[in-house]
Amino acid sequence: SDGQGSWKRRRVEAGRSQAELETAVTEYDKWRSTVEHLTDSHCDSGRMQQLVAEWHGRQHQMDHLSQLAQAHIQQIITDGGSPEAEERRFSEISSSFETLGQKLQHTLAQAQQREQLQQEQRNVQSVIEEYSQWLADNADTVTIDNCVAKIKALESQKGRLLTLQENTKDLCSNFPTGDESREVSEKTQKLTSEWNAISNKLADLQRELNEKSPVVKYTEAKTNLMKWINDVEGMLLSEHVVLTHPQAMEQQLVKFQDLEKSISEQKASYDSVNSAGKELLQRASNERLQEELQELTSRWTDIPLLLVERRTKLQKDIARIQQLKGDMENVEAWLQQAEGFLANVDITSMPLSSLEAHLQRSQDLLDEAEKIEPTVKNIGNTYDDLINSGAEASFINEIKSSVTNLTNRWNTVIKKQAVDCKDKINQAFTKFSQVSTGLQELSSWLDSVETTATGDLAGVHSPSELSKVKAKFQSLKENMEHRSAMLDNLTKLGNKIATSHNGDGVEELSNKISQINSKWTTVMDSVSQKYKFLQDANNQYGEFRALVAQEMDWLDKLEKRLKKSPKSAADAEEISEELDDLENYIRNHPDARLSRLQELGRTLVNNNMIPQSVQADVESISARWGQLSQQRLVEEFETQARTLQEMEEQVRSYKAAGKHEAAARLHEQMILLQERFTEIAEKFERFRSPSNLEPRLCRAMRELRGIEEATCLLELASEDPESIQGQLTHCKRFYQTLSEIKSEVESVIKTGRKLVEEKSVPQHFTGRLDTLKELYNKLGLQVTEAMSGLNAALDLSRALQEDIPALTGWAETVDMELDQVEATPHTDRDIQAEISFVKDTLVECEKWRERKDTIKSNYREFATLCDPVYLEVLKDRVSDCVRKWERTRDKLMQAQTQLQETMTGSYSASPKIPMRKISREVEEEEVSRKVTRKPEVDIPRIPLDKEIQEFEEAAQEMLERMDTMLVTVRGINSETDPGKRLEVLERELSCLAPDAATLISRGDGLVLTVHATQPERAITLRKQAQDQLRAKWSQVMSETEVRKLQAQQAESLLSEYNNLSRKVVQWLTDISDRLERANNNEKGIKELAEEISSHKSEIEKLRKISSELEIQQVQHSGMERVATSWQRVRSNVAHLHKDSATPEKVDISGDLVPRANKLRESVAFLTRKMSSPPLSGAD
After folding, report:
1. Is the distance from CB of 719 to CB of 874 less than 8 angstroms?
2. CA dihedral of residues 940, 942, 945, 949 (deg, nearest 10)
3. Residue 247 burial (CB < 10 Å; 0-12/13-18/19+)?
4. How far is 761 from 296, CA to CA, in rounded Å?
5. Cα–Cα 20 to 30 A to 225, which of 50, 124, 734, 995?
6. Of 397, 422, 449, which one is at a domain's C-terminal end?
7. DSSP 3-state assignment of 212?
């Protein structure tokens, strides 16, 4: 089903990709058709340049279309289809795009050549019209010099005509149509004809002027020239250059240009008049003529100078106005496009898949704004220059309104709207990308976990297998718990995106989140259940091994007691005491332990957890218990045999005393008992072991083999300190077991070698004894080395558990602070303070480098102690921790570089930090705003400083309260009532907890507030107040919880002690009364003795609880009374036993009959034993 779902998802994604591809192809065909139509319609060069730029701008879309095409072709190949048709189709599209680009370049070149030729034709036409107009205006007043000058001027411009003719030939050879070529050629030919006609007219005029006399020519020329000079001077005096509207300045410039043309035209007339006058003076001296020529020369020389000065100033002013107008129009047009783009941006309805494209567009908008910003600044500077140049008031007011509106729009659109838009889109895209990528990675990882966790847990046949399987599921569980926070964060972030957006892709995102959360829950439950099962099995097996060791130890001690020969006793009383001691030892055997051991064995076997080994251990202990029971039966047989001998002697005594009837009755009973006893003794002998060495040797080997099998539990399989501590506890238990059985092993080896030397046992026992010795030595070395390794691993693990969260927490805190700085509005940034903060944090970062290196070193050392298969989680944690430190360091260094560039950019024309730059205008606006702010508003630091001071005082007071609380907690054991201890702890904690939580929360908010304006002070506040508060509060909570737990345990112990004490006291009172009434009733005394023995465990338990209460300083009473009463009861029972055991010489009813009854009971007891396991009544 997963494969089918995956195929469906691929088909849906392929369909979406194909739809997007077809949309892109349709849009491209439509654009290409439009461009080709515009190209064929002979657009001007400006429009063609726009088309060429648009072609270059579509290169990115064509690359995207190519990627979609490749994916589509790959999908066709995947589906088994033939991609040739599609490949040809997309090849043709790519080829048409390149061809269209070449066509646009060629058409642009043609348009530019055509426009250049048309401009040349207009220039030639202008020259022809100028000379035609001059001939019409000056035909009657022109002088010979003017005419010659005009002819020379016309000849100097003939190059334009020749250039026009050459360019006409080139263009006509490149034109595709004959009509256009013919039209251009005919116009050039017409201009050439007109040019030749003007040249001929000037030549004819020159010939006519050369025929007039010098005096007439001088007088006419001087009169005309003086009239022109008077007119020019009058106009120059009346025309003042003033900055005003461009139309008026253009008209004034035209006048000045016309004057300059007329000066050039009149230059020939002036030269003619001047030369004619000098010629006349040479012919005849004339003072009046001399003065006229001097005045003419002076006035002629002044006119061009004044005209050039005014024309130059006017041209500069017009150029400035035109530049200002052009800049404002360009910025205005760009702002309209930007406003249109920003108005259409709606993040809430934007498809999630298009966020990246919108982000790129918004960034492109800001990049363009960065390029245009110098133009905006230039507009302001030009406006200031116009004011200083004394421009016309009405014109200045009009310019001021336009410049102010444009500047305000620029600041609104770029400084605020565009930046906010980009930030919002960036945040949305970053969140969506983070969620999408995170969900994809987490889903893939979850699939691998699900695959790994699939399957049952049957077939665990050794402790090493159990340890490995448990470690595997522990690793899976820890990995999932470690990544659960990531899933929670992605879920929260994804849900936030889903609730704040309503565009395409939201429902799909919500479904993905729901699916992965559902799957996560399923897999987590499966892994947790299997890990819990394996953990329980591991704990059960550890407990089972411990119980096996304890039971074996108890059986060893029992065996030693059974081997103690009663023959060394001085009298029957000592034998009785030894037998009582053995009886009490057996009765005090903790049956619950054997039951628990058997219960654990059944559970492990039923769960198929190491079934063969566990079953063997259970059977071994049962068999040994049966064997020792046999040994006890041997002693019973010996005791009862002595009783029969005493009865036989008593019969002889009765006969010797003449008590024949009594002797007969006693002999009859003795014969019956002896027959039955002999039958049972013979049967029992068949089950007795012939040798003592074999079971001891087997038992010792079994003990060591059990430890050897369990040594796999000592292999380091986790980085968790608690798990390592548990393994270390097992290791110490094995070490203790080896120490306890050392003497038995040495005894078995010594005894065995002696028996081999004596040839009491076969020679092959030597090899078995050597194996026993080697195994013991090997296990001793293994356990010792394991204990050393586990101790080292425990220290390393604790260090890593402390260092990794500390370093990770520091890195995350710094990241959060850097994010807060970046989120601060640009106008509220304090760059200098941020530089100081980054610099100090970098110094702190280098200090944390040592902790990072320590973590890596400890990990490497820990890796040498542990199998790599168990280090995946720790490796991920260490890698993640190191990566966070490195990422934080890189962000700090990048922030430092950007902030330094920002500081440099504050004094340069074009800053290089688009999102962080600080313009001089913004700074001046901020300064102006602060200066003009009302007094009651311009004091934000005073309340903040006061709030910080109040918080620091409150924090110091809270630290003192916490210290007082710790003193109370540490001295709580002076209160002997555990209930009152709990009341005191709860009361103290309830009084302190709300205030501490409120103050810490208040400190977090205050740190964030201070950080916006004073980052350094915020860091100091966090370190000196917040960190101390959190650390101290954590210490208070930790110690309080420990004391509460101790108080609860003490209260539970006290309750158990009181209940058990009342029960024991009541029983002791009752048993004392019954002992007084028992007197010499042997049966009653025996029952009381058995009852007293059965209550011994309760007395021991009461003593143990009392000792524990004394250690915990809990007041309790009654133990001395119980101990005294118990000792008295035991003494009374022992005294009664001794009295009842005194034989009477004659009275059969008081002596022999009870003893015969006792013997009968013993035989019946032996019969029951023979019928129960392990003998089971078999022959």
Report:
1. yes
2. -140
3. exposed
4. 159
5. 124
6. 449
7. coil
The more confident residue out of 840 and 1038 is: 840
Residue with tokens 């100028």: 130
What HEC string does 248-297 produce? HHHHHHHHHHHHHHHHHHHHHHHHHHHHHHHHHHHHCCCHHHHHHHHHHH
What is the DSSP annotation of 562-619? Answer: HHS-GGGSSSHHHHHHHHHHHHHHHHTS-HHHHHHHHHHHHHHHHTTBSHHHHHHHHH
d(CA 710, CA 705): 9
Of the candidates 846, 854, 850, 845, which has an alpha carbon nearest to the alpha carbon of residue 878? 854
Q: Residue for token digits 């020369």?
A: 297
481 part of a folded domain: no
Confidence of residue 933 (pLDDT cuts 50, 70, 90): very low
DSSP one-letter string for 1167-1178: HHHHHSTTTTT-
Q: Which residues 6+ apart lie within 8 Å of 542 measured at CB?
A: 710, 713, 726, 730
Domain carrying residue 858? 802-902
Q: Does residue 460 sit in helix, strand or coil?
A: strand
Q: Is the dihedral of CA 460, 461, 466, 468 positive or negative?
A: negative
One domain for residues 202 and 239? no
The answer to whether residues 99 and 16 belong to one domain is yes
Angle between helices 611-656 and 693-710 (to 10 degrees): 150
Q: Distance between CA atoms of 789 and 791, rounded to whole angstroms?
A: 5
What letter does residue 914 receive in the DSSP assignment?
T
| Residue 890: band (very low, low, confident or very high) from pLDDT cuts 50, 70, 90 | confident
Q: Are 463 and 610 in contact (CB under 8 A)?
A: yes
The C-alpha atoms of residue 171 and residue 167 are separated, in whole angstroms, by: 6
Neighbour count for residue 967 (Cβ, 10 Å): 10
Q: How far is CA 704 from CA 363, 540, 554, 728, 1056, in A?
A: 75, 20, 16, 19, 39
Asked, for residue 1029, whether it belongs to a domain, the answer is yes
Do 228 and 367 lie in one domain? The reply is yes
Q: Are residues 182 and 218 in the same domain?
A: no
Give the pair of three-digit tokens for residue 398.
């009009």
Domain end residue (candidates: 883, 902, 921): 902
Question: In the predicted model, is pLDDT for residue 31 greater than 70?
Answer: yes
Nearest to 685 by CA among 1158, 1175, 1168, 1159: 1175
* Residue 903 to residue 836: CA distance in whole angstroms: 13
Q: Are residues 890 and 964 in the same domain?
A: no
> Rounded to whole angstroms, how far apart are CA atoms 604 and 613?
10
Rounded to an integer, what is the distance from CA 416 to the centroid of its chain? 31
Alpha-carbon Rg for the chain, nearest whole angstrom, is 57
CB atoms within 10 A of CB 24: 18
DSSP three-state, residue 148: helix
Residue that has been written with the tokens 């150029």 in this structure:
319
Burial class (CB in 10 A: 0-12, 13-18, 19+), 811: buried
Residue 762 has pLDDT above 80, yes or no: yes
- How many folded domains does the chain comprise? 4
pLDDT in tens, 132-167: 888 888 767 777 778 888 888 888 887 888 887 787
The tens digit of pLDDT for each residue in 442-474 reads 888 888 888 887 766 666 777 777 778 888 888
362 within 8 A of 513, measured Cβ to Cβ: no
Q: How far is CA 949 from the centre of its chain?
A: 35
Cβ-proximal residues to 988 (8 Å cutoff; 6+ apart), any chain: 965, 968, 969, 1040
Residue 317 sits in a domain of what CATH number? 1.20.58.60
Q: What residues contact 274, with CB distance under 8 A and at least 6 apart?
A: 293, 296, 297
Tens-digit pLDDT profile for residues 481-502: 888 888 888 888 878 777 777 6
**Mind listing the pLDDT tens digit for each residue in 1094-1140?**
777 888 888 778 877 777 778 777 777 777 777 777 777 766 655 54
Tokens for 1052, please give them.
């539970």
Residue 706, CB-side half-sphere exposure with 13 Å CA sphere: 29
CB 992 within 8 A of CB 961: yes
